[in-house]
Design goal:
The complex is a heterotrimer. Chain A has helices at 48-56, 82-87, 95-98, 105-116, 121-134, 151-163, 181-198, 209-215, 233-238, 243-251, 257-262, and strands at 4-17, 20-33, 37-41, 63-68, 71-72, 88-91, 169-173, 201-206, 218-223, 226-232, 304-307, 310-312. By secondary structure, chain A is of the alpha/beta class. Chain A has an eight-stranded mixed sheet, with helices on both faces. The longest helix of chain A is centred in the middle third of the chain and has 18 residues, at 181-198. The mean pLDDT of chain A is 88. Chain B has twelve helices and no strands. The mean pLDDT of chain B is 85. In chain C, strand 11 and strand 12 (317-318) form a beta hairpin. The radius of gyration of chain C is 21 Å and the shape is globular. Chain C starts with a strand and ends in a 7-residue tail after the last strand. Classes of the chains: A alpha/beta, B mainly alpha, C alpha/beta. Chains in contact: A-B, A-C. The A-C interface holds A 43-44, 150-152, 180-186, 188-189, 207-211, 213-214, 233-234, 237, 247-248, 251-256, 258-259, 262-263, 268-270, 272-273, 275 and C 43-44, 161-164, 191-197, 200, 218-222, 224-225, 248, 258-260, 262-275, 278-279.
């Protein structure tokens, strides 16, 4: 059944710095299906943004396979075709710096139009007005500049910009992390509406698990450059298998007693998140893992599939030591 | 389809007007900036209309009147006359003209070149392009300006044109360095990444995305530079490397008048004060422009 | 009965800017007893940091202007204090933890320099000798469970992680044995697991020392887990206050309700539509109740008069005409 739109296999992105090699993404494998929302969760240093940027071509992949609709996209954006650049878009995390503070909204939104469609000036203004309409912003926003509008509205502009080229696949890198809850609600609802209307596929990255619960159809969790667990959303939240997933889920603050009951028993997280330059041997999580065993400090586990569509990378499960 | 276009145009006009008002508010907050603006506007006016506002316009050229030579300041000659009988006030007005021309010429040559090179070097940071541009910049910066000017003058005939060339040669690196700093820090901003990912051309990224973020520092520098270039050009003329007689150049006038200090003090002092006022005016105007452009950020 | 520690009545604060005057705080009421853990929750721009800074008198006096109301700390009027009296209060009575630990620590001084300076100026035992101050600093770092405190004292902020830096800020705030701790979004810039650790630590410490705490945040979840009483703020006004359990069981003000509905839930029931409209401009705030343009239950009176705090049973109060009895 191949409605796979993005396929990554053992994807690696390493950075060479003065302090050593940063294994930002270290052997990541996943498939994204057409029109689903694939969620990627993790804390800082997990590599989730690196994976997103590699898909976008901001970085070229160091090694491994990365396919978009069966075409190789390990190359960076300079070397990619225009058609590819149209089809994959990104909404960045920080609305403060994803829009040029010195440009007008019109200039920001018409840039993709100028690069990809050769249309007249008048037509461009018209198309920009239509884009603003799509995100429910008034047409006279065109002459404003980003510093004059609020964070939520800026993010709507970033979304409108991503939609300008009629893409099929959009990466959303923490699109609402910097926003207030009520603004976030508006944006998320708009995103879901647009997804249905335009048949979009989303890769949704966030550290907010409660948000992920309501957005994604499948969730992958990353720690220090590797994926720990992938499962359909309901599975992921009701039966988290990896100790890190459980730790994360038990730490999130919730607003009702019903949600409290859904959280795994409180696992007190200890220790700092190690820096990606200094990854411990064996399983990268073993220093903080409450279920740590001997083998964990020696051998890095591989991904296994203990249940249907539910993959996990942990020695607690047979087959993970690779034997 | 016409409605959004018309609405956009109208909104653009009203927004520009708003920005002008806001800019003026920030500028005028510091009363000194208004002083600077007044000084410069006056100087420009006098320079442009020198032939019409000077009481003795023909004294600016080849003119002698030994009967009236070396007269102290009086009602007919507010700044007195020099050894050739020429009215110093009129010559100062024409001197302003020359100074401004030199300033504008040097800056219109050096700023575009320096800014463009700075944009390229900053954006291409980490590549050979950056290394090449910045090392060339370093070479030019390492030579002391007056020595460079003297060397150029030694090779070429001393005149205004050559002295402007000499000044330009040592001026452009500062624009390059300033813009390089800004461009290299903006290179990794999300909006630049976004433009790259969309497929925008390098030209667009340099001039439409990065450059607008440099306007503030660049225009402030332009204003301050006008003062400094005028000062440097006057210094060159003072040592005889710039304008040649009888052209009324402020630096030359100070040099010539120096011989007659302290008795006929007015011959050197008034041109010197004129230089001082122009430089001072541009300096505080520069501060005001910086205040005005800072406000854009909020 | 614990005595009232901080009592803010009808505080009005505004800012002079281009284009006019921003009337930010529009009659803020706030009170807490000694030993309480109170949460102050609200979205960006609602005035919570302005309120906190007013209590500490660290707002820049132009362009800000305190135009009305009173702030009583232990019965003393904060607003009429002179600079040296305020400094005393800062040194011994009130400490603040800021949102971004990186910005709160000076990058060119070692942790030791900064921590020991804080202790020295709090002057608990006047004229502490240098080695005594260092002892205190080590002790403070141990209290926030930082490993190897001696080494940390000699390190620079850049050598440490965000969680560690925030713990150091907490250590600095608590080392001075203040009566009141104001924590302004102390964990917003931290990862979830680290946030949990830091909040837990903070909770333990303030329990041990009996420090009264104001926890400012925009996260309802954090407030629910870590506070005893909550104030909800909107557009420069406290719209609702209650004991934490009570507020989450029974939110009364339409804004509070809208906010709770907008939070994504782990139960996966989808995300509510949020609150229509935007936060008001302080240049020209709405007349009457500042929330009325966005309120799903707006009535005529809301557009004309400003609501008072109406009693809704127990210590639960809401600034809404719906509860006018």
């Amino acid at each position: 059944m191949d409605n796979t739109i993005v396929r990554a296999h053992d994807l690696k992105k390493h950075f060479h710095t003065k302090q050593g090699v940063v294994r930002a993404a270290d052997g990541v494998s996943f498939n994204i299906h057409e029109q689903e929302t694939f969620g990627l969760v993790g804390e800082s240093g997990s590599g989730k943004s690196t994976v997103a940027y590699t898909i976008m071509g901001i970085y070229p992949a160091t090694s491994g396979e990365l396919l978009y609709r069966s075409r190789d996209i390990t190359a960076e954006t300079k070397k990619r075709s225009k058609a590819l650049k149209r089809d994959i878009q990104i909404v960045f995390q920080d609305p403060g710096s994803s829009l040029n503070p010195r440009s007008t909204i019109k200039q920001i939104l018409e840039l993709p139009l100028r690069v990809h469609d050769q249309v007249s000036k008048k037509e461009r203004v018209y198309r920009v007005a239509k884009l603003l309409e799509m995100v429910e912003l008034p047409a006279d926003f065109m002459y404003k500049s980003p510093p004059a509008i609020g964070g939520g509205e800026r993010q709507m502009i970033a979304i409108a910009r991503a939609l300008a080229t009629n893409p099929s696949f959009i990466v959303l890198d923490e699109p609402t992390s910097a926003l207030d809850v009520s603004v976030q609600a508006k944006i998320i609802n708009k995103l879901m509406e647009l997804q249905k209307e335009l048949n979009l596929t989303y890769m949704f990255i966030t550290h907010d698990l409660s948000l992920m619960r309501n957005m994604a159809s499948r969730v992958a969790i990353m720690y220090l450059g590797k994926i720990c667990e992938i499962a359909p959303t309901t599975e992921f939240f009701s039966k988290p298998l990896h100790p890190y997933t459980q730790m994360l889920l038990s730490s999130i603050p919730v607003v009702s007693t019903q949600e409290e009951e859904l959280k795994p028993k409180k696992i007190v997280s200890t220790g700092e998140i190690p820096s990606p330059v200094d990854i411990p041997p064996g399983c990268s999580f073993h220093l903080r893992c409450p279920a740590r065993m001997d083998i964990c400090s020696k051998i890095d586990p591989v991904m296994v599939t203990p249940e249907k569509e539910h993959q996990v990378r942990c020695h607690l499960f047979p087959g993970a030591s690779g034997s | 389809m016409d409605a959004p276009v018309a609405a956009y145009e109208q909104s653009l006009r009203s927004r520009t007007w708003e920005r002008i008002k806001k800019g003026w508010y920030a500028f005028s907050k510091n009363p000194l900036s208004i002083v600077g603006a007044v000084i410069i506007v006056t100087v420009v006016f006098l320079a442009v209309f020198a032939p019409f506002v000077s009481p003795y316009a023909d004294h600016a050229g080849n003119f002698v009147d030994f009967d009236n030579a070396s007269q102290p300041p009086s009602r007919t000659h507010l700044f007195g006359t020099d050894v050739f009988g020429r009215d110093i006030l009129s010559r100062v007005f024409f001197g302003f003209r020359l100074s401004l021309i030199m300033g504008v010429t040097v800056i219109s040559l050096t700023a575009p070149v320096g800014v463009t090179l700075g944009l390229i070097a900053g954006y291409k940071k980490g590549t050979w392009v950056e290394t090449l541009i910045m090392r060339i910049t370093d070479i030019f910066v390492a030579v002391p300006p007056l020595i460079l000017a003297l060397a150029v003058a030694a090779i070429l005939t001393p005149n205004i044109f050559n002295s402007m060339m000499a000044v330009s040669l040592m001026w452009w690196p500062w624009y390059c360095r300033m813009v390089y700093g800004i461009a290299s820090s903006l290179k990794n901003e999300f909006y630049i990444q976004s433009a790259e990912v969309t497929g925008a051309s390098t030209f667009h990224i340099l001039f439409k995305e990065i450059l607008p973020n440099c306007y503030g520092p660049v225009f402030t520098k332009v204003s301050l530079d006008m003062g400094w270039v005028i000062l440097l050009a006057s210094a060159l003329s003072f040592v005889g490397l710039g304008a040649q007689p009888p052209t009324p150049d402020l630096g030359t006038m100070v040099a010539d008048g120096g011989k007659y200090m302290p008795d006929q003090w007015w011959i050197a002092v008034f041109p010197a004060i004129a230089i001082m006022i122009v430089v001072f005016g541009f300096n505080i105007l520069g501060d005001g422009i910086r205040d005005m452009l800072e406000v854009e950020k909020s | 009965m614990a005595s009232t520690l901080l009592n803010i009545k009808n505080l009005e604060v505004g800012f002079d800017v281009y284009g006019g005057y921003l009337q930010v705080l529009n009659g803020v009421f706030f009170s807490m007893a000694e030993g309480e853990k109170v949460g102050l929750v609200g979205e960006t721009g609602c005035g919570k940091t302005t309120t906190a800074k007013s209590v500490l008198r660290i707002l820049p006096e132009p362009p800000s202007k305190i135009t009305g109301g009173s702030i009583l700390f232990k019965g003393r009027d904060i607003l009429s204090m002179k600079k040296n009296e305020i400094r005393e209060v800062h040194a011994r009575e009130i400490s603040m933890i800021f949102q971004d630990p990186t910005a709160a620590l000076n990058p060119v001084f070692t942790i030791g320099d900064q921590l020991m300076t804080a202790i020295k100026y709090s002057n608990l035992h006047d004229n502490m000798k240098r080695n005594e101050i260092r002892e205190s600093a080590v002790h403070a770092l141990r209290e926030v469970r930082l490993p190897d405190p001696e080494r940390i004292l000699d390190s620079y902020p850049i050598q440490l992680s965000g969680g560690m830096r925030q713990r150091i800020c907490i250590a600095m705030a608590l080392a001075t044995q203040s009566t009141l701790l104001v924590a302004d979004e102390p964990t917003t810039s931290l990862d979830v697991t680290i946030q949990d650790q830091v909040l837990r630590l903070l909770g333990t410490l303030i329990q041990e020392k009996g420090t009264s705490t104001i926890l400012i945040t925009h996260s309802l979840g954090v407030v629910r887990e870590w506070t005893e009483r909550v104030y909800v703020m909107y557009a420069g006004v406290m719209v609702e206050t209650a004991e934490t359990k009570e507020l989450f069981k029974n939110p009364l003000h339409p804004y509070t309700r809208g906010l709770m509905a907008a939070v994504p839930k782990l139960t996966g029931e989808g995300i509510a539509a949020g609150i229509p409209g935007r936060i008001p401009e302080y240049l020209n705030p709405p007349r009457g109740c500042r929330f009325h343009p966005r309120c799903p239950e707006v009535m005529d009176i809301c557009k004309k008069e400003k609501p008072l705090y109406f009693d809704c049973g127990g210590s639960h109060r809401a600034a809404c005409f719906l509860y006018r009895e």
